[in-house]
Amino acid sequence: MLEQGTISIHTENIFPIIKKSLYSDHQIFLRELVSNAVDAIQKLKMVSRAGEYNGDTGEDEITIAIDKDKKTLSISDNGIGMTAEEVKKYINQVAFSSAEEFIHKYEGKADQPIIGHFGLGFYSSFMVAKQVEIDTLSYKEGSQAVHWTCDGSPAFTLDESSRTTRGTTITLTLMPDEEEYLEAARIKNLVKTYCDFMPVPIKLDGEVLNQQKAAWRESSSNLTKEDYLEFYRYLYPFQEEPLLWVHLNTDYPFIINGILYFPKMRPDVDVTKGQIKLFCNQVFVSDNCDEIIPQFLLPMRGVIDSTDIPLNVSRSALQGDRTVKRIGDYIAKKVGDRLKELYHDDREQYINAWKDLGTFVKFGVLNDEKFKKQVEDILIFRSTAKLETKPAETPAVEVQSSDSDVWQDVTPSNTSSTPYTTIKEYLERNKERHENKVFYCTDEAGQATYIALHKNQGLEVLFMDSFIDTHFINFLEREYQDVKFTRVDSDLDNTLLDDKSGEIVDPTTNKTKSEIIKELFEKSLNKPKVNIRTEALKSDDPQGTPPAMVLLPEILRRLRDMNAMMQQQNAEFPEDHILLVNTAHPLIQNLVNLNQGSIIQGDGESPTAQLTKMICQHVYDLALMSQKGFDAEGMKSFVERSNDVLTKLTEQASK
User: Fold this and answer.
1) At which positions is ATP bound (predicted)?
2) N or C: which end of the chain has fewer CB within 10 A?
């Protein structure tokens, strides 16, 4: 026996804590042991390049072996190995990382970085094993192989070994409740999860389990469009093709590599949860980078790999510090730069992607002042205007330099049939008709009547109908404080109305037609909180205009929406609203004539008067329906009234 002793503990002097609480997830032990094996192989290459080893390094290989009878799992590498002195120094002194010392000694001689930084990864094996053995032979000439054994207590034994091949084998005798790691399928799954992109083949029963190639570590000039797409499909199978991607590659003021994709947005995507995978030297760390990526870019997908992101000893949590913030700012800036470049160089491509990109951009503008300043001039909105657009050219890969970030366009560039505009362009285009006023809609289907009314009179309407636009309109009003933003159903611009000054007064009633209509609807509806307005809507085809419209003043509607949001409930349609009756519509004129021809009977209203009242109610119902102002009971009443109206109309027609 070479030696018998006690492990020197350098972390709180409590070995059981290291065994049970070093990592939150026991399965992480395999990631740590395989990472150590990769390090051992990389170290051998480094000493070979330094001229300190002249032997054959052989083919890199890590082998995992399972023995169900002995309840053991082993991980073997053909790397640098250890001498007895190195085992004492790097294994027995917990938390003294050999990786740190090795990096300093051979700095500048590595083509692959050393993974380990903490010196505790090896001890994760004690979370699942009741005994851990190390059998190792150093690359150094004349070295004696050694065998180290520890049962999870501070006691260990160190003996000579009969091993004749360079490298290290770690053998775990698993605890009874950890025998799931004796199943080949379980091990394959863990290797794919944590070690898939490690640069050394990892074998089990002769089968290579990992694909090894990390696309983000490749030079962008070596990757084709199909390479990027294939990598995306591998990371996110069964998803639509991404819109754009960026290949990050910088080593100043921090080291970061990665490929980030703009995905097609789907209704089931949770924009509050990160989709980007975090790696450290090709070792999988986490399924999201919430602490690194700015919140508005969380829906992006892809990979970030950096040694400058500070991790705790388990690599499972990020520590918020200045470096993390700077990395986040860097990523946001690269995204902003690319969007501006795309907007100016290929606006049609930008427009084609805007349906999905717009959510990212608007959210970023609301939450990041620096990003807002980058992109505030390229915020676009779908418009009812007929705008001319130039056909787009087919985009190409754009490379700043061989070592810089590279963006690639994916979406085919087709000329868009839907016009888009910025707010500044809209204001400039319409300053003669309605200076400093913007008409917008939030529901194309529900507000179709109002949109058509504006379009027919040459008024341009912007579509602000994404879920984020409710908040974004408030931002626009702060940015354009001298501009009035008016939803198409909040009020009607004077441009849409005919002048009533020339209305004729009826000598029999001493009232204008507008006054008669107003009284008729007030009496028929009997809703004191509904403000009846009578206006003649401009149109070359009065029949094509709505007979009535419900208007909800802008301030009142926003208060309603704000209260609903604060109380986390659906906004109820307020009793106080405006019913604008279109006096130019033939239906309304017919109603006036019908009402004037009704005869008051001794026992109450005549059938004609009843029908007039029901039609007034029906006109109001139809106007209310376009504002989605019905609850369940209201819809039931509407159907019943509709049936009554049709019954009475058919009765009269059959007489």
Assistant:
1) 32, 36, 77, 82, 168, 315
2) C
